[in-house]
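Cont'd.
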Amino acid sequence: MSRSTFGTRFTITTWGESHGEALGVVVDGCPAGLPISTEDVQVFLDRRKPGKSRYVTARNESDQVRILSGVFEGKTTGTPISMLVENQDHRSADYSRIKDVYRPGHADYTFDQKYGFRDYRGGGRSSGRETLSRVAGGAVACRFLSELGIRFTTYASSIGPVRAASFDPEEIARNPFCLPDASAAEKASAYLEECMAQHDSTGGVIECRIEGVPAGIGDPVFGKLDALFAQALMSIGAVKAVEIGDGTAVSEAKGSSNNDAFAMKDGTVTKLTNHAGGILGGISDGSTILLRAHVKPTPSISLPQQTVSNTGEPCTLTIEGRHDPVIVPRAVVVVETMAALVLADSLLLNMTSRLDRIREFYR
Amino acid sequence: MSRSTFGTRFTITTWGESHGEALGVVVDGCPAGLPISTEDVQVFLDRRKPGKSRYVTARNESDQVRILSGVFEGKTTGTPISMLVENQDHRSADYSRIKDVYRPGHADYTFDQKYGFRDYRGGGRSSGRETLSRVAGGAVACRFLSELGIRFTTYASSIGPVRAASFDPEEIARNPFCLPDASAAEKASAYLEECMAQHDSTGGVIECRIEGVPAGIGDPVFGKLDALFAQALMSIGAVKAVEIGDGTAVSEAKGSSNNDAFAMKDGTVTKLTNHAGGILGGISDGSTILLRAHVKPTPSISLPQQTVSNTGEPCTLTIEGRHDPVIVPRAVVVVETMAALVLADSLLLNMTSRLDRIREFYR
Amino acid sequence: MSRSTFGTRFTITTWGESHGEALGVVVDGCPAGLPISTEDVQVFLDRRKPGKSRYVTARNESDQVRILSGVFEGKTTGTPISMLVENQDHRSADYSRIKDVYRPGHADYTFDQKYGFRDYRGGGRSSGRETLSRVAGGAVACRFLSELGIRFTTYASSIGPVRAASFDPEEIARNPFCLPDASAAEKASAYLEECMAQHDSTGGVIECRIEGVPAGIGDPVFGKLDALFAQALMSIGAVKAVEIGDGTAVSEAKGSSNNDAFAMKDGTVTKLTNHAGGILGGISDGSTILLRAHVKPTPSISLPQQTVSNTGEPCTLTIEGRHDPVIVPRAVVVVETMAALVLADSLLLNMTSRLDRIREFYR
Amino acid sequence: MSRSTFGTRFTITTWGESHGEALGVVVDGCPAGLPISTEDVQVFLDRRKPGKSRYVTARNESDQVRILSGVFEGKTTGTPISMLVENQDHRSADYSRIKDVYRPGHADYTFDQKYGFRDYRGGGRSSGRETLSRVAGGAVACRFLSELGIRFTTYASSIGPVRAASFDPEEIARNPFCLPDASAAEKASAYLEECMAQHDSTGGVIECRIEGVPAGIGDPVFGKLDALFAQALMSIGAVKAVEIGDGTAVSEAKGSSNNDAFAMKDGTVTKLTNHAGGILGGISDGSTILLRAHVKPTPSISLPQQTVSNTGEPCTLTIEGRHDPVIVPRAVVVVETMAALVLADSLLLNMTSRLDRIREFYR
């Protein structure tokens, strides 16, 4: 496969540019018989829609999805599901100023180096708008996983230096930052106002907890579940670090404190702690899976920046228009859907691991 | 492909168990005409060989590699390169005690859940010995990359809580920890003695710097160079977090300080800083690539641990024999070779990105 | 990848049902900088369009393609090219009669067995209309190959028992059968009138000649160029046999007559004959590539046929409406575009085969 | 994946040259718990072993296989199965004469064009000996399929112009040609003596019948079961045409005679005829699968042949030594094992096609 396809059995192939006619996704390998509606996908897209608070870009897009194939009488048919979202807010003229200049922190320069030229309108294919296709595709994965009793809780655990100090799942949807802590949300609000006043931006951390995953999912070597999550999350534009379970903290821990003791609970093997984040040797162990993604500050800031043009002339660039001062809130659903795609794929792949179960299947 | 193959154009397929007859690797897609000898591979294997200092396992293995195919008259032929290392130190009897008991921090339980049973001798396929095959395969990738002027510097940046405070590349090979700082190496030595006296283990951090990578390598969406590095490094058994460039620090940074300004130097576009770690939008920008992997403490410790048997009986396990008190020093070359495999693959894939260069190629 | 994607570097992912909202394709891996327009694709789609003669279905479809991404200012950008064709002639009501009955020679029964149910409108995903997406994607491959001087001549070499006895390339476009022989076209016309009068259908043979392919393309084992052509052509719904070069005739030949002698011509190695069809050991040898696909008679015939319902009731089925009495003429362009996809992919893959050329590329 | 791996879930990766140290295969994705022994694989290798009759090459090889990984206590573990066969009969000196000359009908010229040079000893990687690795890997697939009640009957249906006129499955193993007709075997023997007296060679046809395949296996578009069989069989060195069911005959048939009527038998849907060869729309229909491969005459003949050297000098080549006058008998098991690999892979892939069955699996 070329590199716009993700997954091996449950796959998405995404396409579309920030200011092209439309963006979309083809989901292939989704099992037949899954009830799904446009609305099931739309609720995910709405979570990343622009214009919902003063802390996100004002771009005017309704982001209404259409399902063009693969669903018949309300159920998936097992054949490819094609979905499409039209771009409404083209305004290509706005981008003429950055046509010939490399924006710091963006992919303008590297695209030119790779392809010889680029669609300079709003970042083209390298725009964060590309994640819209992932979210639509991942929404189908989430719908599928819900049938197997798998549940996601995804949220911002920090916005810039402001960290959530408590965890209230109800709170996540109540503030514009997806923080699980109302008091942290207030502090984040104040911090962002400060950033915006300085024409600056900030980063943050997104956490994803996955419950209900059966033990045994994932492969022992290159297909380790944590390796696939790492690829999935690091493939999201602004993510620069990925952690599983205790993550970076393990490097300073001792074996005696980092190992999770096993015990029996209700007749099942469980772990007394979960430093491992639900994955041992690349394979799920039945406890909660915990992922963490570190998101960089929005590179589009309206402070003057030193850069060069595509003909090698040094210059100063001031990016106009309003941009998200922090990407984190809109990226929460992207992390969730990417994680769902990994898990859907790995659950399907795992079905072939044991002869006894295959024999039973084909009996 | 199934999950024991890594890469798309320059691939390795690994096989072998800790205490089986042998371990090995098939390298496929290596270009024809590359000069390579057994010795070129052996120097990499020697960097991860057991028994080299008192801080690594005493397992007695010479780990001599044989090249069985794909090389003719000292050069690669373009067909698969098969390499094999025989296991000498089987001693399967040692492992009878853990046959029915799940070791904390290991994959015993998850293997049983996935496959219904497991090769319990020394961890079987989930043993760290599996990385031997990766190192042999990645050595070929390193040999290939060296022909294109690409250079790796890989080292431990911390051992447990002891961090390197200075960077002397000459020092890396002089101490048993691969630390680039002689004074830190002394402190690490003291810290490890303490761990060993407590029958405990510790973790650490491995960094990899890659120089000489041309701009334009990597793909914009799922094949982002950083996403592939993340998968590659997180697929190494004990790694629980991966960072690119400033990594986790970006989440607290502001856009104005995190963006790298562009400038001209000797007629080429360069960056004045390198917070991005050499990758923008998933594509290399020509500056040094910087990767960081956080390694957990060795799970095999000789303290008594609470666990359960495979029939659900709670029990206490004390692991005997000598194990590495820290995995980091032997994992340094694994990080380097996995990174090399990603890069070799991406460099080959990139050759098809532009029509003008393809036309020139086929003229 | 799941199975709606074809190729490894130059790939297409197709989607869409016969009577869904639309059909389409995502082309991924097409090099940047290729000039392409909607019209370049449309000419290929027009070659398979229904309603062009009395020997093809009367279904009323304009089959106008839209390019939604991956092309900017008239050139490909190197990112995915999404194309879409709306279905106009839904008339779903017509299909209610076959909703519960398995049409002989069709995939109704096997779809139900695989997926548990099916989109019964016009065959859904198993309809020949699915090839529209392939043709749109393959048109881009043809456009790319033309830049490298590669030329296709594809035609019907027989319609039922009527075989072309002469070869006039100009004639192919002049008759409704794509026969390269005007006299055979007249006979085919008479034969088809007879079939239609009997409410029956017939098959035929499609040949594809490819000129200008450099020597060295294809891989030695599973990626043999002929193996990939075989998969590509056999994946077209009605094809039941594929031949390369002398094809089935080789089984009765002797080595002395089947081997192609080598000779020098204008300083280049050539073959004095071409029994091999331009491929030796799976790799192109620089002479004309010759492929042949055997197409079965249209299974939709209006004679009464014995069958069963999806509840296991024996019954007699008479298919109404007008169907192509022979698929061959509209399948010619499908064979050509599938062959082009294989070749485009293999040409890109081949660029990584030699170190000396890679070194030159990255100099 | 690169091109020495075949399959997606049940895969083989092959390696080795005709006159290298060894040849081998890595089987990945084989389910855990399959009982398998060296002997199970050896019986397949023995079917293609040289030196068994006067109609095959006299090369002296015992072809004893060793299993190096992936099997523990007599059962597969679910991890890669590595197998190896040492080459005993190197005699590299014999090949010095063809080092610089292109043998007609061989891949010498195309390898040089692709890779710049080649391992000229006995054809290197392009030798028919490469199929040994496929047979070892496919033997595991056959072992797996036998657990699901799937049975293969593979035989020569013709040797040169001599066709089997009757079908006695017991006869296949009794004559050196694998013909199912004793009288045809006598004629084939006479014909081959004639060929050998003329220093010439001949081709033939191999048929494979597969019984016990459940309906519903295969995918509707590019993963059609027949397309995958076509790739698999055409990837065998000497095969130049592949047919499914009625094969080439369909092009002259009418729809009314080519369609297979459905009927009920013992409560199951069956077909009254099997022109389709057990596959409808790319998906198995539960009846016998029928494949046919046309094999070219051995290109190595001892008649003088016109050719050129690798420096462009015209010359005459006379190949010495004894070569198989017909490849067919030894290729029978190659066809069978390649078909088994396709089927094993497709059976595993099919397990994910329906939500209801997945839900049951994960209950």
